[in-house]
Design the sequence.
């Protein structure tokens, strides 16, 4: 069956680094997305991985291991505005995304 | 417009009434998705439109739900005889497939409350 697992909630300190993990089991794989969603707002695109390895984009990096069905989102130099939910989504077919329930990240001063 | 827009932003209705939600995708985006997101939960796929192809309706939870799209523009999601369990945020996203990476851009959502 299809399954996307992420921690429900994480807490980190401003200025620190946090890693949000995502494991998946899907019938197909055409890429993995990370989205950020602030409370009461729509998700916004952060990253896309289709090949194994690390993709770095400013303070955010995303890693993928297809053989392990595993990805992580790494956030560096955390800022208070990074408090949000982070959604992992796997593109199973040509278009359909399977979404995780999201990880709520709480940043403390 | 620059982004995906949805209307209304909020809708309160009585159980049993019909509601219609609207989505205006980004101009030129051929693909359009509807999702439902219940409080504290992930996105639940409802329906997908791509160009003039037959839509993928596999995510619609019951026959009370239907959606239409006119060409590659506006889409409407209709919920008939609403139930309290329909209360959720309904999100629309559009995308343009470029070089194999298809990024979905989301609208602000319609918050539906069924009393």
Sequence:
């Amino acid at each position: 069956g299809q399954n996307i697992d992420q921690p429900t909630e994480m807490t980190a300190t401003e200025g620190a680094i946090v890693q949000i993990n995502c494991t998946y089991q899907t019938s197909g794989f055409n890429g993995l997305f990370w989205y950020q969603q602030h409370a009461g707002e729509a998700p916004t695109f952060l990253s896309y991985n289709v090949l194994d390895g690390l993709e770095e984009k400013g303070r955010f990096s995303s890693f993928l291991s297809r053989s392990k069905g595993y990805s992580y989102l790494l956030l560096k130099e955390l800022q208070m505005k990074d408090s949000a939910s982070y959604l992992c989504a796997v593109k199973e077919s040509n278009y359909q995304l399977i979404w995780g329930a999201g990880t709520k990240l709480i940043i403390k001063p | 417009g620059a982004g995906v827009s949805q209307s209304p932003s909020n809708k309160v209705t009585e159980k049993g009434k019909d509601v219609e939600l609207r989505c205006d995708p980004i101009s030129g985006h051929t693909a359009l998705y509807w999702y439902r997101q219940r409080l504290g939960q992930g996105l639940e796929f409802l329906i997908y439109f791509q160009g003039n192809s037959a839509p993928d309706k596999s995510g619609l939870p019951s026959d009370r739900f239907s959606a239409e799209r006119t060409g590659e523009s506006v889409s409407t999601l209709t919920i008939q005889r609403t139930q309290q369990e329909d209360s959720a945020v309904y999100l629309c996203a559009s995308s343009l497939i470029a070089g194999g990476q298809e990024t979905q851009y989301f609208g602000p959502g319609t918050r539906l409350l069924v009393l």
